[in-house]
Amino acid sequence: MPTIYHSTYRKPPLLHFNGHLQTILPSFRRVTGVTYVRERLTTPDDDFLNIDWMRQKSKRLVVLTHGLEGNTYRHYMLGMGKMFYKHGFDVLAWNCRSCCGEMNRQLRLYNHGETGDMNQIIHHAAQQADYQEIVLVGFSMGGNISLKYASVHPHPLVSKVIVFSAPLDMRTSIAVLDEPSNFIYKQNFINKLLPKIKYKAAHYPNHLDLNVLKGQKSIIAQAALFFVNINGYQDMEDFYEKGSALHFIPCLQIPALIVQAQNDPILTPACSPTQLADKHPFIHLEIPLCGGHVGFMHPTDKEHTWAEHRAIEFALA
User: For the chain, what is the domain count?
Assistant: First the structure.
């Protein structure tokens, strides 16, 4: 489908002057009126996944996947769930391994290219009710996971996939995160990941050598190698290849909305595949001038972001 350059998102709220502010200020947003019912799933490798439900006996389900070191209580997850619930959907928001406030049992955590846990969750959900369709919505890393899943082995009930600020090209996304201007995001991720790295090294000393990680040039490179070591990738090149949804979305057979702001501080143009989108029958690539990274705050609506309005519009079209 032709790339959408003339997005309906044209004006952020007052004081949201640039991509950094449009990324940071939404994190102070408070979403009310959402009540989850939690369920714990046991995985085939004897680990667990915590999923949060909002159910109203609907025939339609939305599955929400959060970003790196996020969880189901991030404002964008709550706001999107609230929007879809208001429009008649059941809502399933899930926590990637180690992101629910409790460390997972096995060596591996989660990563941008891992789709097995999502596959289990969707098959489990499909058995819980007589759903007629399932829509996937992902944010940042969760967007990359959702797109790869929808491209590689989607459940037959999955009808659409909608993602915002997805790092579709892992090579450039990791590199840009290491730039000085992105120090605040890098530090935020590292502050959350470092305790997990130390925990895994202490509990699995034969699988993770912290001295190897320290040999990397930057702390972001250390964190990336950590994901490589614990998740079974051969090396960084293997991670870039298998972790980047960009390499899989040519196979998409369902409608996909990919929204990438041009002023996103932690994505690169490689994450907005305009040439592929222009000739692909199912990819709708929307690249508004502004919005930041998982921002897209509405200039007038105080309850919902523009992203939430755009997602439900695409889901119901």
Answer: 1
